[in-house]
Amino acid sequence: MLEVDNISIGYTSPQGTVQAVKAVCFKLNKGDIGCLLGPSGCGKTTVLRAVAGFEPLEQGRILLESRELSSRDRVVPAEERAMGMMFQDYALFPHLNVQENIGFGLRKLSADQRRDRVTELLALVGLAGFEKRFPHELSGGQQQRVALARSLAPRPSLLLLDEPFSNLDVDTRERLAFELRDILKQTGLTILLVTHNHDEAFALGDQIGVMNEGELLQWGTPASLTHYPASETVQTILRRDSLFERRQHARLRGSDQ
Ligand code: ADP
Ligand code: MG
What we know:
The protein is 38% helix and 26% strand. The chain starts with a strand and ends with a helix. The chain is globular and about 50 Å long. The chain is α/β, with parallel strands linked by helices. The chain has a domain of 130 residues: Rossmann fold (3-Layer(aba) Sandwich). The longest helix has 25 residues. Bound molecules: adenosine-5'-diphosphate (ADP) and magnesium ion. Adenosine-5'-diphosphate binds next to strand 1, strand 2 and helix 1.
């Protein structure tokens, strides 16, 4: 289980101090998909980076399987955490083919083991037979699935996904959200995902955390958020996001014709 226990994180720059994350608490059970949802700038990526080991904490702790990974005084370095990551600006290596991209983090395996693992992962993400293709020969959605396979390759203990659909067009995003949930569930991994998109959070999450201005306002199942929003702010964020998306969607559809 992942435990994020009362963490606060600030950034100091010449412009001043930003309190990016304020006393955030949640627990994510093994095998569950947790989604942090909230408007741009509310602190989602900062929480994810802290779980990955890239941000020191001002207060609080982060534990995985009861092992303390971060506290005020100590941060276990990212490379010792065995976490898989796919950040917003993920990019495949353009000069490597699909097989080489996915196998990149598997240098400790023998060539045979590496090939078997790549084949297994390509089947999982629905791209069997794509080993020799190069990134420029793939659609955006296919590239995204290769990037996902690459982050799954080393069998991480926890998978962190930051806005995994941000590079895709709206129609592909909708289709992939449900496909991605199936793929992720098959891996059995514990996953923490970040999105500003209401529909993606509800398509993917077993648990959803609604964030605003650095605070986690509510953490619960999609049904509990819908039926028992903890505050008007939560209700407004859920409503505003889905309305905004629907409008944007309609506009994009319109501009295609
Ligand atoms: P989100 O992912 O929800 O869009 P972020 O976690 O990226 O939000 O940012 C939270 C807040 O922290 C924002 O006000 C942002 O401007 C600020 N912030 C993020 N990264 C830095 C940084 N490296 N230096 C200074 N401020 C930052
Ligand atoms: Mg972000």
